Amino acid sequence: MMKERKILLSESDIPDKWYNIVADMPNKPLPPLHPVTREPIGPEALGGLFPEELVRQEVTMDRWVDIPDEVRNIYSIWRPTPMYRAYGLEKALDTPAKIYYKYEGVSPSGSHKPNTAVPQAYYNKQAGVKRITTETGAGQWGSALSFACQHFDIECEVYMVRLSYDHKPYRKIMMNTWGAKVFPSPSEATEVGRKILAENPNTTGSLGIAISEAIERATSTPNTKYALGSVLNHVKLHQTIIGLEAIKQMEKAGDMPDIVIAPFGGGSNFAGLAFPFLRLNMVEGRNIRCIASEPTSCPKLTKGVFRYDFGDTVGMTPLLPMYTLGHNFVPAPIHAGGLRYHGAGVIVSQLLRDQLIEATSHDNLEVFEAGITFARAEGIIPAPEATHGIATAIREAQKCKEEGTSKTILFNLCGHGNFDMKAYEDYFAGKIVKHELTDEDIQKSLSQLDTPIIPDR
Ligand SMILES: *Cc1c(COP(=O)(O)O)cnc(C)c1O
């Protein structure tokens, strides 16, 4: 009999609630602080940037949040997403481990990002917002938001990190196709951008800078709000649709993962897959290891510190309690643009602090080798960000082989790499190098911080 490769759900299986892990966390996240007074602030401080319902979701203690029918209806364009048993990869690795992956690259923009872009556009529309500004690193978030805004007839303005803007012209055209305006960041369109360009005209930009530009535009233009594609609690909440589907699929396969893995930029696709499984740990006493996978060139979880820091480069956002490399940290120009962010989201940071999750890192060459092994074994060409999760899955599968144990591994294939051929071209041309980031480099960035520290308990 042919072995079933895909574990599929039907549209009626699309969950009708998102899962809010904060309700079950033993230690709740510390409050954000005002950027100037450094006093704790409430949700109202976010009201200028985001519509009311998203602010409510940012701080809600409800365990489950209803997914509006209109959102589920758009989700059904690509959801439920398939789960695959990676028979090809298992064979290539000659491992006794069972490997599964949840494939989020089937969305219109090619990653998990529309899972939150759609509800964010929906709640903005409900609040009468006419224009949304945002930043994009690799172009995945900008594409997702462009798609979502177009659906609700909202104008979309995207500040795209210069490095990606130059590397990925077709990401820009994709956004234009859905009707968005795209600026290379730093840009001449904002005060922040002009200042940074004057100081450093050749900068490749960073997510932190692009965030500062998008926020400046949102706060200085009428009827305009800002949207963030990662890091924040409401973004992670929306992404839990991934893990909620994955649990149904694992049950359908008659299996349950021992290890859950996802690449880590700000934490949203990791949260999306892992939080529903962490719930099983917290309420059912299971012992599923959840591992976040980051680049060695931007190692906030494995080498950063847990303290208050700004979400952007300029220091306009509230101070958040997070694992950070310092808001002035500019990561090496790796192709995995979505992982080039100095900090980790608040919830994930608290979970790591409490040792409820794990983190690991991989260098630039290792992840490309993992990505190519995967593409040849499974067919799908992964996004450079996604290769980090693959590299961790391969590492764990190889451990199984060495130890002669069979574990069940589930990872998030959070996006395809069909727009990332420049990255693969560079790899085949031998241009991908290890980025040596020394502990001194990290210390130098951290020593510039004067934000509040968080004492050990
Ligand atoms: C944005 C993105 C990431 C990183 O962001 P998270 O919020 O950590 O998920 C990773 N992979 C892909 C494909 C992305 O688009």
Automatic annotation (TrEMBL):
Pathway: Amino-acid biosynthesis; L-tryptophan biosynthesis; L-tryptophan from chorismate: step 5/5
EC number in record: 4.2.1.20
Co-factor requirement: pyridoxal 5'-phosphate
Reactions it catalyzes: (1S,2R)-1-C-(indol-3-yl)glycerol 3-phosphate + L-serine = D-glyceraldehyde 3-phosphate + L-tryptophan + H2O
Modified residues (N6-(pyridoxal phosphate)lysine): 113
Role according to the record: The beta subunit is responsible for the synthesis of L-tryptophan from indole and L-serine.
Molecular function GO labels: L-serine hydro-lyase (adding indole, L-tryptophan-forming) activity; pyridoxal phosphate binding; tryptophan synthase activity
Enzyme class label: lyase
Keywords: Amino-acid biosynthesis, Aromatic amino acid biosynthesis, Lyase, Pyridoxal phosphate, Tryptophan biosynthesis
Description of how the protein assembles with itself and partners: Tetramer of two alpha and two beta chains.
GO cellular component, one term: cytoplasm
Similarity section: Belongs to the TrpB family.
Any Pfam family hit: PALP
Domain of life: Bacteria
Protein name per Swiss-Prot or TrEMBL: Tryptophan synthase beta chain
Domain Tryptophan synthase beta chain-like PALP: 78-415
